[in-house]
Amino acid sequence: MSVAPDLNKVHEGFLREDLFVCVHEQFMTETAMVGDIVLPATMFLEHDDVYQGGGHQHIILGRKLLTLQTTAVQNTM
After folding, report:
1. pLDDT tens for residues 35-69?
2. Are both 14 and 28 inside the same structural domain?
3. What was the pLDDT predicted at 21?
């Protein structure tokens, strides 16, 4: 929510009774606090991923370094 041009309108929108908000976050952000349910997301050390640098012609495979200790949901499938 902190990057929205009119934060008050966005906050009011998230608090509507007819809206169900599901948030997928690593931290308890302002957006996560207004969510009806928060799914914990993994951090980059907890899952395999492929990285590409902007303007470069190579990719890097980032291997998982930590075993999940929580019920976090992977960001990638």
Report:
1. 999 998 888 888 888 888 888 888 989 998 887 76
2. yes
3. 94
State the Cα–Cα distance between residues 19 and 2, nearest whole angstrom.
Answer: 20
- Give the three-class secondary structure for 50: strand
Residue 26 near residue 40 (C-beta atoms within 8 A) = yes
Which parts of 1-77 are beta strand (E)? 22-25, 37-40, 49-52, 59-62
Q: What is the pTM of this model?
A: 0.65
> How would you class 57 by CB atoms within 10 Å of its CB: exposed for 0-12, middle for 13-18, buried for 19 or more?
exposed
Task: Answer yes or no: do 6 and 28 share one domain.
Answer: yes
